[in-house]
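Sample entry (504 residues):
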Amino acid sequence: MSTNKSVARSAAIISLGTLFSRILGFIRDIIIARLFGVYVYAQAFVIAFKIPNLFRDFVGEGAANAAIVPVFSEYSVKHTREEFWELANVVLNLLLVVLSLITLLGIIFSPVIVRLVAPGFAADPYKLQTTITLNRIIFPYILLIGLAAYATAILNTLKHFSVPAFAPCLLNISIILFASAFGEGIKGLSLGVLVGGALQLIVQIPVLYKKGFRLRLFKRLKHPAAAAIGKLMVPRVLSSSIYQLNNFVDTIFGSLASIVGEGGVAALYFAYRLILFPLGIFSTALSQAILPSFSTLALDDNYDKLRDTLTFGLRATFFVMLPASAGLMVLSGPIITTLFKGGRFDAYSAGITSNILFYYSIGLFAYGATRIVQSCFFALKDTVTPAKIGLLTLIINVVLNASLIFPMKLRGIALANSISGIVTFFVLFYLLKKKIRLAGTGVLIASFLRILCASIGMGIVCYILRGANLILTIIAAMLSYIIFCAAFRVEELDKLWKLFKARH
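Predicted structure, serialized as tokens:
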């Protein structure tokens, strides 16, 4: 099986698991939205859940993909199976120490952290105290999900994707069940998060043991390869966490209710969750599946194949993300109204959330493409360059937020995020192009423009039909996209059709 086919197959498995997780996530968000609207409890949950999720990306899932997978991939090729599992235990022990310390500090300093992340909450003592309490209860989630992410990284290194891909479904199921059972208040939400985090870890343990893992707790805390992982992890904190960091900037400005109005934090969350749907199903899955292949090709100095795989990843991302962006922009109002409106999620909640979704959608293609480019940097063991660019675009996002928040309010926050995301992609791609001597980008640009034209055509169809039933409109949009792709001779459509015929 060729590298691209192997990547596509692995990405399909991850995408299927992510699809189930995102669907369950939608159900979870619908329940939260209708129980709490965009008001106090919804805002408290968004902040309390977001803080450990940021740290999770720092030392959990993000670090696992960027630092652990390339090092472990190389180690599995050059060393024996026993040495591989010895390294796995050393890394696990180090993660336990780091995650436990972060969890303890997070619980102790929750009042300070909440005030930093949501400074606008200080104007409402009840909202502030509710958020602090919920944050303290939820913070141990970082330990659970960090260990689950470690297990995922090990299994992905061993090219096992199915169980890790479906594990996140358990978090959403847990929150749905507990939130539905306890209703309005923080008890159901907090229990749902903690139980769900534990289940994500537990379900992967039998597979790890079947692969050969045996726990050796704190027998060894030093290893040369573990040190290499640490060196890769430090700059990676900024680089691959750009989405989380930019999203936190949005939250800080969104908490300023005196400027943007009530409910900004929750509205930004619900809109961003919809952006994460196509990203999670496709771009995250593809970048996760493509990283081991990038790592192996870089290790073998097979730069011709590396360049080919990068181009494949970017063109596939554009093929999915550009029409998704067009569809979400045009149908932002009907999508938010259909999914969330009801209960405490009133017309005001729907209005501000749909406006945010429109402006977030502008940068969708760039968010997805950046993940592919970053994966290539990580495989080349260069986490410094993405970190520098991440810091630059974070500064751009802060400046744009401060500039746009007054004339555009919440819409300005979302637009600032999109602009900074687009800048991130183009700068990173330019630097990677020079690093790997990627020639023939004219083909990639032509592909992008053809897909863009097809997506605009699909967007016009969505605009014409947006007063009709949402499901029928989406079906019509998908069919029109296929027609426009054929009209503009988008090669990706032809490749998909040949792959379909080969399997049937």
